[in-house]
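batch job 7 of whatever, protein = ATP-dependent RNA helicase
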Amino acid sequence: MAPRQAKGPKKFSELGCVSEQTLAVLTSQGFLTTTPVQEATIPLFCGHKDVAVDACTGSGKTLAFIVPVVERLRRLEEPLKAQQVGAIIISPTRELAKQIHGVAEPFVASVPHLTAMLLVGGTNGVGCCPQRRRHQQRRGGRGDGEAGAVHGARGALLCTDLAARGLDIPDVHWIVQIDPPQDPSAFVHRVGRTARMGRAGSALVFLLPGEESYVEFLRLRKVPLSEGTPLPPTEGPAVAPAAADAADADDDPPTTAPAKARSSNPASTSAAAAVAADAAACTSTSTPDVLRALRSAAERDRDVMEKAAKAFVTYIRGYKEHHCKFIFRLQDLNIGRLASGLGLLRLPKMPDLKRPAGMEHFIPSRLDPATVPYKDKAREKQRQQALLVRQQEAAARGSAGAKSALAERRKAQAAIDAAQAEARLPAAKRRKLQQIDEDASLNSEYSHSRDPSPRRHRRRTIAVVAQQLPTLLFFGSDQTRGPIVRQGVVSSAFILGTLDRAEGFGGIDTKAKWLKL
């Protein structure tokens, strides 16, 4: 029995549900055969079936619904009337909507009296919530980058996960991931920007030694990876040939000015030398040279310094929020090398970095970051003005604080002096003064708690603390005598009770007497 031969991809003309007009558009676009997704779904769509498709990126899903939608509109028994909508295609992002519209236009144009319109939130007046609108406007620059990548002959497009979906840039040869995505499901979407529609492409991801288990994790999710060849060494010549030629030329005296003019402005000369050294480092393959150039740029321009610090903080937070926390552990990340690689002058203070690892690889700059100016003179002027305002406010607060502290010290000293003066009085005099203070305190407490309503029953709650003395005072009130103090002999240390009338309270010695205050 002859071995069964594998079936090849089916042509669009073999599906039996695609019109000649649509086949002509497909041929003009270079689509002759179907992908597995298109072969399985187009006949179902054309047969008025509800279909849900879940396929990897670059598998041809767009044509899988564009072709049947156009075919069903083409076969309507009655043509659509003016302002009548035949189909609505909804996409999650503006870029994907533009892509679908671009693919659908030539097919829609093949149907008489049928047009396609693109409606995007933020540009066509379509209502949306403010948060969604901000999200759409934030994506505004992505279209420009996509257009440049599409029309450019060659180059590299630096992007975030914002470009992981919805971009269809032809002939992308490499996808390089400096770091794995926070969400592992985004890994497939990232690499899906290459090898689209049967084209070839490659993807590369960098992993640290402690992150190698991520390979096995992806393998279990049916995303196999293979280890690549080692990277070339990064310890090349410190100065590129072009920079060396420039340095040699700089050693000769200038031909357009006297030799002594070279030292008339040392600051300008040193700044020019630093810029030349940075340019040489940028063309060098030596890691130390590049790191020195980054540190030097941050020490001369506050904008570079702040962006480096912001990149560091963003990286740390992103690494901490990785979904695979058991693989990407922040406590194992070499913070020192990361800080050095970004050219930081100081390590930003972050609560997440209590015990950063690898700090032996980071040497803080001797330059105080507060003294680094902006290269932009207008921004530096604004910064200096803001510093002056803050200094004036701090001085004002310091003056007010000093006055308050002086008043507190004087008050404390007066209290000490009064206590010392009282200590020098005879014992009888001190007891008399103490009794006066206690009586005044009782009257004050009573006046705050007195019920102003004459109709309300005058029921007072009393509390007595014995303070280890056989004789103690009860205080309360009645309707005729006003504030009173009752002196009696009791045995308990703490009594709580109520006084309905001035003449009665259970458990008090009958020899007690009333004292009018």
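notes: The beta strands are 174-177, 202-205, 460-465, 471-478, 482-489, 494-499, 513-516.
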